Amino acid sequence: MLFSKRKQIVKRVLVVEDEPLTAFDNEVLIEAAGYEVVATCDKVRDALATLDALALDGSGVDLILSDVKLNGERSGVDLARLAKERGVPVLLVTGRCPDDARDVAIGCLTKPYTDKVLKEAILAVEAHLLGKTPKLPKGLELFAVTKE
Q1: pTM for the full predicted model
Q2: Which of 57, 21, 60, 58 is nearest to 39 (CA)?
Q3: CATH homologous superfamily for the domain 12-142
Q4: Cα angle vertex 88, ends 96, 25, to 5°?
Q5: Pick from 122, 87, 85, 86: which is nearest to 107 by CA?
Q6: pLDDT value of residue 144
Q7: Residues 6 or more apart from 71 whose CB is under 8 A from it?
Q8: Neighbour tally for 95: CB within 10 Å
């Protein structure tokens, strides 16, 4: 019997979170799940600088995991809007998904979530980006994939 390896399009993840312990936990879990965390930021400005630098060197970012409330004047929704223009999907993690997130993010994952749910959410986002209909873990809502 032959087993095929699943197609992986999400390999490199940028974590944007203003709570240091949550950021650390997300980094550890994401790396343990087999993804590379390219950087962790707490401000939109820093996340955009990282995105642009990685785009220039050709390595890029496949997914941004971002809180909605961040340090500084801009929010995770602002980041999602700007990342969408760059072709990078954003999964927002928040207590309550903002009404305008549907237009700019790939989805929202409700806080608090477990390690297992975060891992399942990333897998579901990946399947969604491949045009499949994934089984959604509790607290995850995915939105239509649109190109800018």
Answers
A1: 0.92
A2: 60
A3: Response regulator (3.40.50.2300)
A4: 55
A5: 122
A6: 84
A7: 18, 42, 43
A8: 10
